[in-house]
Every structure is written in C-alpha cells, then in structure tokens.
Amino acid sequence: MNGSMTSVSFYSKLLEHTFDLFVYLPPHYNPLHTYHLAIAQDGRDYFQLGKIGRKMDAAIEEGARPTIVAGIPYPSVQTRRTWYHPGSNMHKIYMKCLVQELLPFLEQQYSTWRLPHGRMLMGDSLGATISLYTALTYPRTFSRVMMHSPYVNNHVLQTVRQSDSWHAFEMYHAIGTDETEVKTTAGDIEDFLTPNRQLHAVLKSGNARYHYHEFSGGHFWKYWEKDIPDALRFMFDIDKKRE
Questions:
Q1: What CATH code is carried by the domain that includes residue 117?
Q2: Which of 74, 101, 202, 207 has the smallest C-beta neighbourhood within 10 Å, fewest atoms?
Q3: Distance (Å) of CA 18 to CA 49, 52, 118, 168, 214
Q4: Mean pLDDT for the stretch of residues 159-188
C-alpha cells in the first residue's frame, strides 16, 4: 500500500520566491476525505534523503492517521540560513509565509484538518529550529513539532522558557551523541549536543506530550533517516494503538 508523490508550484509574495513543493499523498487519497498535514522544512532532503514517503506509508500501515506531507525546498544554503536562523531578520517573514501564504494555499489544494493538532511541522538542524519557533509564534495554527538535531542557542532557550504555548504541544526531539563538533553553514564549529540537552531539560519540565531521544551518530541525514520511523510512531501514537 503506497502513497503517491507529486509536486506543486507555489509563489510567496512575502519571500518573492516560487517554490516547487514536494507533496506526498497517502494511499487511496480521496479529495472528499479530510487529512492531517505535515510541513517539512528542508523539503527536498526529507523526500530524497529521509525517504519520508516510504516512512509515511509504513506508519500509516501501522496505524498512523493518513497525512499529507508538503516539503519546502530551499534555493541555496545561504538563503536557507537567512530564512531559518532565529538571529536573522528574515526568519519572521519566513514564518509569516508559512502561516499566511503556504498554509492557505495547501488548504485550497487539499482537504485538511484546520486545527492545530491536525498540523505538524518537521525539520532538521535549523529547519527544526524554525519549525519550533513557528509553533511557538503561532500556537493556534500549529501544535505538533518533530525536531531532529535543532540548532539551539541562548536565544532559543530563552524564547522557550518565556513561552507557555508549548505546554499544549506534541513534540519529538532527537539529537546525536556525536554532535559535539558540528560544522555549521556559517563555517563555524559548534557543540549541538549540550544546548539540546539544555532544551530537553526545559521541555521535559512542562506539560507537553514530549519525547526526547539521543541516537548514536552525528549531524547527518544517514542518522536522521533511520530515526524518522520512531519519530512518526511517537507523533501518531502508533505504539499505543497496538496495545
């Protein structure tokens, strides 16, 4: 039982950019039915390296709710950093694009649940960071976040500590134990593991439905790809449904 892959062209006035979105449609997709929606930053990577289509097929077979996945590709590494980094002036505009332009566009294209718990944001590294930030900024729009190795600094930690909205979230958070010397897109070498553990300490103290996992590996897709099935099982309560 396999879903289908397609692409859709989307133009953002806010970002002044045309995206060729990657879209996964669940098996037996029917436009008369209503589906959950997942939006992936680093969309090309999630589809080509993370094999998110195959992972969703398997999760649905195990009991996950049928979900449409839309992947947003970035035009260049530098633009990605400009859009995703919390220290950039453009990250707020990118978040507005997700909520005010992309989401209405997808809801016109497909029948999706128009409630926060019917929408999930996912991302890796800076893509995970901007996913978390978007949910924190627009909690009435998104309340489910799947994060692999997010970039975390003091500003990110402070933002989470000062927010109450995430207490109602569902979050999956994974980081590799070898992510102590990660080369960033800015060319710096940074420790991702320690600040992620600090973020975990904050998130585990709240009321969110939250799962934290440290995998054996580094800041690479070959490790994130292997972890995606477990992430989806948690996000869709698959193990609970098996009981």
A1: 3.40.50.1820
A2: 207
A3: 22, 23, 26, 34, 36
A4: 95
